[in-house]
Amino acid sequence: MVLLCRVKDPQRFGVAEFKEGKLIRLVEKPKEPPSDYALVGIYFFKPVIFKAIGQLKPSWRGELEITEAIQTLMDWGLNVGCDYVSNWWKDTGRPEDILEANQLFLSEIEPSNRGTLEEGVTLDGRVNIGRGTTVRGGASIRGPVIMGENCEIGPETYIGPSPP
């Protein structure tokens, strides 16, 4: 299964082609896209994908294209289903795209503390602290921030945007 999203500039992506509502072909960065539905980079495969990958030759860009491997599965008569991203999706092909995606992601976090805060810790804004994380005394955390599980922060540490 592949996930697809409608985009404004499909020629920048692997693009889906449909016939009677069924996914029939994928084309990598086509000059004339058959639709405006792009592969978003989320795939669910069975182990047969490795057989298809093993038969790939480098593309005109000198890369092994996952789009071609998926197309190989379809050429073999295997069913490749698709679903659609209904919320936001952000291409992260360029460094500035990664920064924008990070901002989008952080804008949606909810404050949560599943860790341990020592005395003297200051939290401000949307701060999400994972299980097993300890924030030591004197630490100051200004959101939006997500801390993973089993981290140790501080003591006397500042985490957040530009220092206060």
**CATH topology call of the largest domain:** Spore Coat Polysaccharide Biosynthesis Protein SpsA, Chain A
CATH architecture of the largest domain: Alpha-Beta Complex
Amount of helix: 10-25%
In spatial order, strands of the major sheet run: 4-1-5
- Major pleated sheet: 3 strands, mixed
Q: What's the mean pLDDT score?
A: 91
* Count of runs of 4 or more consecutive helical residues: 3
Say which CATH homologous superfamily of the largest domain is assigned.
Spore Coat Polysaccharide Biosynthesis Protein SpsA, Chain A
Number of strands: 14
Coarse morphology: elongated
Please provide the ordered H/E string of secondary-structure elements.
EEEEHHEHEEEEEEEEE
Short description:
The protein has helices at residues 48-54, 66-75, 95-107, and strands at 2-6, 14-19, 22-28, 37-43, 82-84, 112-113, 116-117, 122-124, 127-129, 134-135, 140-142, 145-147, 152-153, 158-159. It is α/β, with parallel strands linked by helices and 164 residues long. The model has no long low-confidence stretch (mean pLDDT 91).
